[in-house]
Design a protein that fits this description.
InterPro entries (chain B): RNA_pol_sigma-70-like (IPR039425), RNA_pol_sigma-70_dom (IPR014284), RNA_pol_sigma70_r2 (IPR007627), RNA_pol_sigma_r2 (IPR013325), RNA_pol_sigma_r3/r4-like (IPR013324), WH-like_DNA-bd_sf (IPR036388)
CATH topology of one domain in chain A: Immunoglobulin-like
Family (chain B): Belongs to the sigma-70 factor family. ECF subfamily.
GO molecular function (chain B): DNA binding; sigma factor activity
Radius of gyration of chain B: 18 Å
Number of helices of chain A: 2
Largest interface: A-B, 46 and 61 residues
Oligomer: heterodimer
Number of domains of chain B: 2
Helix content of chain B: 55-70%
Shape of chain B: globular
Largest sheet of chain A: 6 strands, mixed
Low-confidence stretches of chain B: 102-111
Mean pLDDT of chain B: 86
Helix content of chain A: 10-25%
Order of helices and strands of chain A: HHEEEEEEEEEEE
Distance between the termini of chain A: 38 Å
Number of helices of chain B: 9
Keywords (chain B): DNA-binding, Sigma factor, Transcription, Transcription regulation
CATH topology of the largest domain in chain B: Rna Polymerase Sigma Factor, Chain: A
CATH class of one domain in chain A: Mainly Beta
Low-confidence stretches of chain A: none
Radius of gyration of chain A: 19 Å
Protein name (chain B): RNA polymerase sigma factor (Sigma-70 family)
Chain lengths: 164, 188
């Protein structure tokens, strides 16, 4: 059985009619600025069906008129885990922007903080005594959460793409 | 920055903080990654996401690539995983699939490694030249899908005067013919 996609990719490269767009390589170059040296990457992991404690928001929702919830804007709960730390992130799309509400399990304790990063901005947040954090009004696209813990390497969630 | 285009020293240098080495990797592999993503029928925006996903996965695993010499395959395989995910589901959340396993010794034959044809410029050129030796409608069909990646099934059917429903099967048949032609010419 042949690999049609590989053959097609080779054909198109040789034909030279579909070069990689400049912004694609620019984004790839820029990605290097997003690395966190020494960090442990936390991959996305399944959430047990018995999970009953989604993260609560410790900041109020953005003001706006009440409306019927759009199925696309239903909160999505993702879990990432590594190095003894689980990071739960609930994402809500609202007016084309993303609201993130998260929780660290276990709470890494005093002196810890998190950075919510997109390719073009970083929002630092303190962690509440119950391990919660939140950020609102983020642009759709790639994001990661970096947890800085005292005396331990940072944990960074695997980059995840959220479309609006 | 290492004075080379070999992936292993560039990868090591990039892992140690050499941005120039990373840029050279991007320059070398992005065109192949783009072509692989587009071969899954992705529009530009989706292909952009698949390629960016693969670079971000590399960033996450930059110190854990088992065989740096096979970085090209790793990047193409990762791009294909991401592209396939987008093509199948177009999910609103693009999860991080497991990175591909490292290639095994002996995986450098075309059967074991279909990506070799994408990674090697000479082989790519041979594939393109071989299209000229195909019979119709394969010659026209493959030239069209190669030179106009955004042409949809309807447009291809109109331009080649064939029923819309036969475009996909004919394309598959033509790619099989092309593959056999190349295999017959390739040195063992």
């Amino acid at each position: 059985m042949i690999d049609e996609e590989a053959l097609l990719a080779a054909l198109r490269m040789a034909a030279g009619h579909d070069p990689v767009p400049r912004q694609v390589t620019a984004s790839a170059r820029h990605a290097y600025t997003l690395r966190t040296p020494g960090a442990v990457t936390a991959p996305r992991v399944p959430i047990p069906r018995t999970h009953k404690h989604p993260p609560h928001r410790n900041s109020p929702p953005r003001p706006g008129p009440e409306r019927e919830p759009d199925p696309a804007s239903r909160p999505r709960l993702l879990r990432f885990a590594a190095a003894g730390l689980a990071v739960d992130v609930e994402i809500t799309v609202s007016d084309g922007l993303l609201d993130l509400a998260g929780r660290l399990l276990p709470n890494p304790g005093p002196g810890s903080r998190i950075d919510i990063r997109t390719p073009h901005l970083t929002q630092s947040r303190d962690i509440s005594p119950t391990g919660h954090f939140a950020a609102t009004g983020l642009p759709p696209g790639w994001f990661t959460v970096v947890c800085h813990r005292t005396g331990q390497p940072p944990v960074t969630t695997s980059w995840t793409l959220i479309r609006s | 920055m290492p004075d080379t285009t070999a992936p292993a020293p560039l990868l090591r240098a990039a892992a140690e903080g050499d941005r120039g080495a990373w840029d050279r990797l991007v320059e070398t592999y992005s065109p192949m990654m783009w072509a692989c993503a587009r071969a899954y029928g992705l529009a530009s925006g989706d292909a952009d996401d698949a390629v960016q996903a693969a670079w971000l996965r590399l960033l996450e695993h930059i110190t854990a690539i088992h065989t740096p010499e096979a970085l090209g395959r790793w990047l193409l395989t990762t791009t294909r995983h991401e592209a396939l995910h987008i093509a199948r589901g177009n999910s609103r959340v693009l999860p991080a699939p497991e990175p591909p396993p490292p290639p095994r010794p002996g995986d450098d034959t075309e059967t074991a490694d279909p990506l070799a044809i994408v990674l090697d410029a000479e082989r790519r050129a041979r594939v393109w030249h071989a299209v000229a030796r195909l019979h119709e409608p394969c010659r026209s069909l493959l030239r069209l899908v190669a030179t106009d990646p955004d042409a949809g099934t309807h447009q291809i059917a109109l331009r080649l005067g064939m029923p819309r429903g036969s475009v996909g099967p004919t394309r598959s048949r033509c790619l099989r013919h092309l593959s056999r032609l190349i295999a017959a010419e390739d040195p063992p």
